[in-house]
Amino acid sequence: MRVDDQQFQRARSPEQREARRRAILEVAEQLLTEMPVSDISLRELARRVGLSKTNVVRYFETREAVFFALLNRTIGDWLTALPRELPAAGPPAEIMRALASSLASRPRMCDLWSSLGTELERNIPAEAVRDFKLAHGDHQASLAALLRERIPELTEQSSRELVAMTILLLAGLWPFANPSPSVVEATEDPRLAGSRVDFAERLGRSLTVTVAGLLTLDPAGRPQRRELDPAGRPQRR
């Protein structure tokens, strides 16, 4: 997608400006299918949009701000679809596997999420970070509420903790599950088979273990002496 520079300069109304922002985000999303976020410069983004770098900065101060906005938009779209992708009820392990599979099917979102701490939060004004984190916090609260609906034994606190752990596990596992070509070639050696990371499988397993631990804590976060049933839920006494 390319946008005429003169049209961008003439964008005056809020609707026009929002349309221009959407155009920039769509180009950024397309670039992510071609290269990692670390390789995408603001200059390249502007070139692909068909604008001067100065005009892009009118809408996003830095390239990091572009990807912050894209990540929040992508998460919002995911949360809209997620209720249809999770079982309405069932063992926590089944729900966590479905959650991991849903995440694995959205590689661009995982790319951006895993880049937050290492890349995107390094060159961004404090105000932009604050705006992003407030919107991101709303998304986390929505995900926590959805997971609590599916696993009623979770407390409000533990559901928020589960979301936080999901993001941390994703950020840690995604780069190892998507290594460089040289690492892929090296791990074709049968002796290194154990070092290959299946993202959906490993994340689903890790989240299942996390939920099992959270379900053994009381509301104050203290361990309880409660055994889990075969479905991974605390047994009632």
From TrEMBL:
It comes from Paractinoplanes deccanensis. Residues 18-78 form the HTH tetR-type domain. Keywords: DNA-binding. It comes from the Bacteria. Residues 218-237 are annotated as: Disordered. This is TetR family transcriptional regulator. Residues 41-60 bind DNA. The keyword DNA-binding applies.
